[in-house]
TrEMBL record:
It is a multi-pass membrane protein. The chain crosses the membrane at residues 56-89, 101-120. InterPro entries: DoxX (IPR032808). One of its GO terms (cellular component) is membrane. It is found in: Membrane. Keywords: Membrane, Transmembrane, Transmembrane helix. This is DoxX family protein.
């Protein structure tokens, strides 16, 4: 079970790292032109950068506390925060009619729920 939780947390951390780097360092106009990035055209640069930084923090929060043994309670807390982020992403992509991305966000939400459940409950 512990291995499955590490794999799920690692997958989510990789997704968060990729999304965070993209949102933080790629220009908004480039993001808006990319598949799934159309929502960035409707929001400010600061909002996109803030989401990127939050995703970078999530990547660290899903792995480092447990790996270092320092405040491991932060792993499930981060997973719950990721769930909230995915709910917002699903609403945004749903509003834009991007059903495939809604389903992908649902998979990420399920992984985060598994990590939260496993790390809070075990």
């Amino acid at each position: 079970m512990d291995l499955a939780l590490w794999i799920a947390a690692g997958l989510l951390a990789a997704v968060a790292l990729a999304g965070g780097v993209t949102k933080t360092f790629v220009p908004k106009t480039t993001l808006a032109a990319a598949h799934g990035g159309g929502w960035t055209a409707d929001v400010g640069v600061a909002f996109v950068k803030t989401l990127g930084i939050l995703e970078l923090l999530a990547a660290a929060g899903l792995i480092l506390p447990a790996a270092l043994g320092i405040a491991p309670i932060l792993v499930p807390v981060t997973a719950v925060c990721w769930i909230l982020l995915m709910v917002g992403a699903m609403m945004t992509h749903g509003r834009l009619g991007e059903t495939g991305l809604v389903m992908l966000n649902l998979v990420y939400l399920a992984c985060a729920a598994f990590v939260a459940w496993g790390r809070f409950g075990l």
